[in-house]
Specification:
Length: 100
């Protein structure tokens, strides 16, 4: 197991890892909301998010959570790179699926 983030680490790294944790959690919450919307749409027989949409968001959430797991266990450059993966995945989901 990795060490806990310390105050010896630059504030920017701690901030970025915190932000990426929030984003990864948001992607997981988004997948859960999409599954709930899909279930409700099926019950009401109205259009809702399809399986490809849910699957794409689920893959993005898994990638983000795995990258965040690495960001939480690494320090320095590896932590920054893992956190940036989370930010990039989140940006891709927003740009390709929500703002398109």
């Amino acid at each position: 197991m990795g060490r806990a983030r310390t105050v010896n680490e630059p504030r920017a790294v701690r901030w970025l890892c915190g932000l990426s944790g929030l984003l990864a959690g948001g992607l997981v919450a988004l997948v859960l909301a999409l599954v709930a919307a899909w279930f409700l749409a099926e019950q009401l027989a109205v259009p809702g998010p399809g399986v490809p949409t849910i699957a794409g968001h689920a893959v993005a959430a898994v990638v983000a959570v795995l990258a965040q797991w690495q960001a939480d266990r690494r320090h320095g450059v590896p932590a920054v790179l893992a956190a940036l993966v989370v930010v990039l995945v989140t940006a891709m989901v927003l740009l390709l699926r929500w703002f398109a």
